[in-house]
Amino acid sequence: MSDETTDGVGGFEHLLSEVARNVPTQSPYASVTSIDRAGVVDLSFGLPAPSLLPIEGLSSAMTTVIETDAEEALQYGGGRYADLLPNIVHEHLANRGIDVDDLEITNGSSHALDGVCRTFIEPGDSVAVGIPTFTGVLQVFGNHGADIVPVPVDEDGLDVAALERLIDEREYAGKPVPKLVFVIPNFQNPTGATLSVSRRQRLLSLAQRVGCLVVEDDVYGDLRYEGETPPTLTGIDENDRSLHIGSFSKTVAPGVSTGWIAGPEGLVSRIRPMLSPGTPLLTRSILAAYSEDGQLERRLTLVRESYRARRDRMLRALDRHLPPEASWIRPSGGFFVWIQLPDAIDTTPLLERAVENGVVYLPGAMFHPDDSPRSTLRLSFSYVDRQDIDHGVAALGETIRLALDTDA
Amino acid sequence: MSDETTDGVGGFEHLLSEVARNVPTQSPYASVTSIDRAGVVDLSFGLPAPSLLPIEGLSSAMTTVIETDAEEALQYGGGRYADLLPNIVHEHLANRGIDVDDLEITNGSSHALDGVCRTFIEPGDSVAVGIPTFTGVLQVFGNHGADIVPVPVDEDGLDVAALERLIDEREYAGKPVPKLVFVIPNFQNPTGATLSVSRRQRLLSLAQRVGCLVVEDDVYGDLRYEGETPPTLTGIDENDRSLHIGSFSKTVAPGVSTGWIAGPEGLVSRIRPMLSPGTPLLTRSILAAYSEDGQLERRLTLVRESYRARRDRMLRALDRHLPPEASWIRPSGGFFVWIQLPDAIDTTPLLERAVENGVVYLPGAMFHPDDSPRSTLRLSFSYVDRQDIDHGVAALGETIRLALDTDA
């Protein structure tokens, strides 16, 4: 065995790439996943509700695949169901007003973003990212050594005017324009904010003017619970400046771990060969057999209704249980509510007290590229039962009140 | 739409990474996959025999997973079957005399190799690779901008003495030692050669002396048809200089697209966070339910017998149908026989005539990092029925004779 006291990998430290040397070996979620959840309401992760997992549907899709196309589905190539999946996604995007030239199926949205990074990002290249953002996004960019340029997010989503100023300042200082702008336009993770239509248009114009690429991660886009659906960026992009990432993980099941990247043909054809290898074609076959003949759209109607009720329940509980010092954006879709507390409260150490009171959340610091203390936290209403939402939010309210008292 | 006449991706050429700019957008297999195979014996790709795909077994494993652990198997996390899979692989490796500290499940062997590259290879870094080699390996290294240092492969596998000379010459010329040595020790793809035990030991000593890492891709290791099994490199490595890559794609089914990377804890823990994201946990659950309780080892016995018979059939057919100018290495396992023809024959243009005569093979040029004409070709005995092996080899023999006649 190696002598790990000297350099960590037994004489191989010197072989590590510069990026790998700086990537933490521990999961960023380790401090939260290690919490004992017995008797605690889990509002932490964005897990689909267990009761909404399509167990029967996927089971019958498996039978269909095995009975009608097993030899091909288990072989390299994948057979007719796997072949069908891009068409199903094309049709789904068309239903949402997105007419794309080309798309590629991926092993989920992070795999798609990873492929975008491999195609465009060299260590030190800058990417503009709406902050706070999903931890997984920070991980993917970090694994490519990207320099993250944080852009504020408010109740109308990514602050495009602030991004414009940042880019102008960078150009003035002789710094390069970020190659990519990463945005979660609908029900942003974690803030729940939706990018306004005027900002969408302005972002595309900006990208066209400065010559960068907009990557829209729209994994929650199918989960709108109220109001009109704004056009996707890729749907209104006339200059081939944007890529659209989507996923079945939130709407069908995380276990299928399947998503897509869609956009102009010239762009997708560059990304396709850079996507990391490993295509679980059996899963894709099962998913296609599950989704064909309009079944996907029928499912979306069903899950939207159920998640809307959960969201409403959480919003009512927040109104009832949280002190007036707390504020949040009302999300019109997705899985999350982002809570802003008074600046004096650091939600990372607060988590321990929250768990004692019976609730787990994700501390705001997890959604930032630096380690500064944060007075924000994310709640997920997707996973637990409705009455547990009430209990969890009540426990959170109590935790916050105690912290405010201690503080005062 | 973009004006693709000017720069290919509508004004985004300048954003591409240096590596992506040079990666071909077309599959290296396109010229072979596009061949109309009607009435043609397909000896080209390393596909498992359709009759050996475990359709019943996987179907019943799916039922088990759905009936006993569906909620977890479809969720993030994956549940108890997915959790079981690393133990099954640990046990399988122990059966082969490999006692590893740590392993990680991957989306197949290419995904594992990709993760190794991300951990160690920066564009321009050199890697020593036994040539000819599997095209997918050249693709993965190419996608990381690696500089491939070709090392000859003969009937005893990678020529370690030649590698040693190459490294010495490089050091003398002030060039860096390759960071990685990539080797397929058992029934190498495409040559079928097995690395001798003395070369295995010498390779590990060399790696220890010069401070590089050996990556052994052992996806065919479970498919030995005769003779004694030599120890794996990772099995006899005492200095944490090697990583072991394996896969279920050849032994269970390509559609599950699942493999592993195993080795010293310090090394695997560095690679784990660099593996590209996207984990199809449902597939892993099905595979674990299929493999548990010794079922995997029972299956291996079965498939080994069937592939041994196919190999014997091909070797007999080669003896009968190929002219004396052709030679090959007798493979003691795996899927392939590598045919060496007289230098004057270029097997790339020859393929068209072979198809006319009723057989498809893979031209030798596909297994080299450059485009030089090659007088070699690879036959796979894994996929077609036994009598088709005879027909295909007879058609190849006729094609070669005609080429020799034309040549003379």
Overview of the structural elements:
Two copies of one chain form a homodimer. With 408 residues, the first copy, chain A, is of the alpha/beta class. Chain A folds into two domains: 160 residues, Aspartate Aminotransferase, domain 1, CATH 3.90.1150; 242 residues, Aspartate Aminotransferase, domain 2 (3-Layer(aba) Sandwich), CATH 3.40.640. In chain A, the strands form three sheets. Chain A has an eight-stranded mixed beta sheet with strand order 2-9-8-7-6-3-4-5, with helices on both faces. A four-stranded antiparallel beta sheet of chain A has the order 10-11-14-13, with helices on one face. Chain A has a two-stranded parallel sheet with strand order 1-12. In chain A, strand 6, helix 9 and strand 7 form a beta-alpha-beta unit. In chain A, helix 8 packs parallel to helix 9. The longest helix of chain A is centred in the last third of the chain and has 27 residues. Chains A and B meet through helix 2, helix 4, helix 6, helix 7 and helix 11 of A and helix 2, helix 4, helix 6, helix 7 and helix 11 of B.
